[in-house]
Design goal:
By secondary structure, the protein is of the alpha+beta class. Helices cover about 15% and strands about 20% of the residues. The chain has 5 helices and 11 strands. It has helices spanning about 50-55, 75-85, 90, 105-110, 130-135, and strands at about 5-10, 10-20, 20-25, 30-35, 40, 100, 165-170, 195, 215, 225, 230. A hairpin with a 2-residue loop joins β1 and β2. The longest helix is centred in the middle third of the chain and has 12 residues, at about 75-85. The N and C termini lie close together (about 10 Å).
Length: about 230
């Protein structure tokens, strides 16, 4: 399969094909073997210009067309996806109708690790040097989001999976890895929290690693929380 673009307003929002495979999810000493199916994930987190095309009003704190959309709850992300999936003019441009969604947590980590290249074992998405691939700041002072795609991509050509903004995943958060599905689907075992991944612009590097898991209530929102989109291949 090939990458494809979501065309809008004379430009495009790119989707990257991720070939499924088995990989080891989690941190050293706490590993879970997971098998993902093929899927597509967006090259960038959802940008403000793409959000505005679908939703009109831009809620971001740090304004900029090509900056990641932020200041959105989990439910806001679902509202965007519902509108995107119902957008007839956009959907008419595809040979088959797509159902866009949030990535599962295991899909997110697999893509961040480089998909079939996950054995490269990079600490961050595409590098062991955080400054090459992530907007972050160990001083946690005076930072803001930056335009997407300005740091090095990972092995699949995906940008900004570490740093810039935390990203919502579809899953309910479960600390016990045995409760996480091994087939790449989201964890639907209910809890009070949902999953964020990737770290943000004012985080320490340790929060921006490919295996850092973070839980938060689904109605949380601030200038550090955005999302990217996925679609089943």
């Amino acid at each position: 399969m090939k990458n494809f673009d979501i065309p809008f307003s004379g430009t495009a929002f790119p989707m990257i094909y991720v070939e499924g495979a088995s990989y080891l999810f989690g941190t050293e000493g706490h590993k879970l073997e997971v098998r993902t199916n093929d899927f597509f994930i967006s090259r960038y987190p959802v940008t403000q210009v793409f959000w505005a095309y679908i939703m009109v009003e831009n809620p971001a704190f740090f304004k900029g067309e090509n900056k990641p959309l932020e200041h959105v709850t989990y439910f806001d992300a679902l509202d965007f996806l519902e509108a995107l999936n119902a957008h007839e003019d956009l959907q008419a441009q595809f040979p088959v109708r797509h159902r866009f969604r949030l990535p599962s947590e295991t899909e997110w980590e697999y893509a961040a690790r480089g998909g079939i290249y996950w054995k490269d074992n990079f600490m961050f998405s595409g590098s062991n040097e955080v400054s090459e691939v992530a907007w972050q700041d160990d001083r946690r002072k005076g930072t803001e989001t930056c335009p997407v795609g300005e740091k090095k991509a990972n092995q699949l050509g995906i940008h900004d999976m570490c740093g810039n903004v935390w990203e919502w995943c579809e899953d309910y958060y479960q600390a016990d890895l045995s409760k996480i599905p091994r087939d790449g689907t989201p964890c639907l075992l209910e809890s009070e929290s949902r999953v964020l991944r990737g770290g943000c612009h004012h985080n320490w590097a340790v929060h921006c690693t490919v295996d850092k898991r973070y839980e938060i209530v689904p109605d949380a929102k601030d200038e550090c929380i955005g999302f990217r989109i996925a679609v089943t291949a």
